[in-house]
Structure formats: structure tokens, C-alpha cells
């Protein structure tokens, strides 16, 4: 017997997505199928275990000490440097190929080239504006001196 359909119904029952007709079909099948009853029991036990387990995040003091540590600052700084270098290389090479293959292509109409160029320039200006705004406001956090 193919139990694929009933396994899906068991999952739907566990996730509380099953409708009344499907529940009736599943219950009828569970009366005769030991394997599916065991599967349902196993899934329900796992669900109970998962609900009992809660993630506890470290205290704020521990995070503050970690973030303020010398090695954490070095790691973050080096990571940002390599990330920035990678982004710069990708952007420069992308611009080169875009200019070479699209803007200098005589088969593409002038209106299309100007429109796409204006769209990209506008997007870059907006992106730079948003990044500047975020940097400005992050440096001037209102509640900086308030401790958690």
C-alpha cells in the first residue's frame, strides 16, 4: 500500500492545516494501519520535544563584552575590508562589461540606452543616499547611553 498520501495528511494534521474531510480519511486509515499510527505517534512526540526546548540567548553583558573584544573588532574589520574589495571588483567589472556590451552596441537604440542608463544612475544615487542616511543615524543613536 502506498502511504505517501497518508504521510502528507499526518504532516498536515501536525501543522494544524488539515480540513475535516482529510481528517476523516486519515482517522479511517489509522484504524487499520499500524505503520501510519506509529508515524503519527512519533511525529507527535517529536512535536512535544521541540515545543519543550527553548533557545536561550546569552545575556546582554556577555554580548557587549564579546563585541568590544580586540579579536572580534579585528575579525569584523578584516571581514568588511575583504567584502568591500570583492564588491568593488565586481562592480567595476560589471560596469566595464555593461558599457562595452550594451552602451556601445550600435544595434541597441539610443532611447533604450539612455533610459537604462538613467535608471541605473537613479538607482545608484538612491542607494548611496539610503546608505549615507543609515550611517548617519547609526552614529547618532538616541539611546546610546541607556544600558539594557
From TrEMBL:
Keywords: Membrane, Transmembrane, Transmembrane helix
Highest taxon of source: Bacteria
Residue intervals passing through the bilayer: 77-99, 111-131
KW Transmembrane (keyword) present: yes
Name the UniProt record assigns to this protein: Zinc-finger domain-containing protein
Native species: candidate division TA06 bacterium
Amino acid at each position: 500500500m502506498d502511504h505517501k498520501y497518508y504521510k502528507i495528511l499526518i504532516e498536515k494534521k501536525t501543522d494544524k492545516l488539515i480540513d475535516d474531510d482529510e481528517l476523516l480519511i486519515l482517522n479511517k486509515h489509522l484504524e487499520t494501519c499500524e505503520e501510519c499510527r506509529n508515524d503519527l505517534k512519533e511525529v507527535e512526540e517529536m512535536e512535544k520535544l521541540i515545543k519543550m526546548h527553548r533557545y536561550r540567548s546569552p545575556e546582554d553583558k556577555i554580548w557587549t563584552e564579546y563585541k568590544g573584544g580586540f579579536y572580534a573588532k579585528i575579525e569584523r574589520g578584516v571581514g568588511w575590508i575583504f567584502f568591500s574589495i570583492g564588491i568593488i571588483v565586481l562592480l567595476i567589472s560589471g560596469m566595464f562589461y555593461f558599457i562595452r556590451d550594451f552602451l556601445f552596441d550600435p544595434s541597441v537604440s539610443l532611447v533604450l540606452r539612455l533610459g537604462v542608463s538613467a535608471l541605473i544612475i537613479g538607482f545608484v544615487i538612491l542607494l548611496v543616499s539610503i546608505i549615507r542616511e543609515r550611517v548617519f543615524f547609526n552614529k547618532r543613536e538616541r539611546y546610546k547611553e541607556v544600558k539594557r
